[in-house]
Amino acid sequence: MKKQTNILIAFTVIIGLLLSSCTQEPASKDAKEMAKNGEVLPFPEPTSASTAGKTLADSKHQWRVAENHLPADAPNIVIFMTDDAGFSNPEVFGGPVHMPTMERLAKSGISYNAFHTTAMCSPTRASLLTGRNHHRVGAGQIAELASDWDGYVGKIPKSTATFATVLNDYGYNSAAFGKWHNTPATDITKLGPFDRYPTGLGFDHFYGFLAGETSQYEPALFENTTPIEVSHNPKYHLTEDLAQKAIEWIRTSKTLNPDKLS
Q1: Residue 181 designated active-site
Q2: Domain locations along the chain
Q3: What whole-number distance in Å separates Cα of residue 243 and Cα of residue 175?
Q4: What is the pLDDT of residues 215-226, one digit of tens each?
Q5: 116 flagged as catalytic
């Protein structure tokens, strides 16, 4: 299968289209047909390909083949989100900041220019993750300032799938690296609950920090749901660490599942 990497600066429209399959259920359609067509996710598990006879000798064993729900030209997907940077700051979009690597990435993929920003990090990320207005997913404020008003509770509801969940249902591997800041502050304990950590919201893997900010030299990091011991290496820098961990994950993913998209 030919692979390509699409660099999606804004992903809201695509996410909304994907998530519509999870939320719109025309009454005129059969539930099994809807599930098979991806109008309701997850897809049903394939049935057994084996034939059971009265005895083992009369039976035929055959491993079932997982269905492929993606077109032949489905892309790998990389999404970049930078907090408080300004859309027009990098030269990629006409700004003064020289970013040659981002320029190369943008030219190799797709860039959008109508992303829904809320002018705050947690709400914007919640919109990106779900394809919905931030108030619709309880993210009207940053995680630490959540309150018990509709739209501000700081918890993405279970009724709202993230794009990682949808992509996983279609057969993708998925990982998140860097700043998260969408887990309720009260959940960041040794006992969780972990259902609103990145790995509880659709991502197979996470490496980064859960809070709104951290040191670039001695950061408080998590791998999945496990706290990482703070580095005291004088040569350490967070951006290099995140990039290296992302590269390692991609290589591991391709080694273990060479035909699977990420």
Answers
A1: yes
A2: 1-44+67-115, 161-262
A3: 12
A4: 999 999 999 999
A5: no
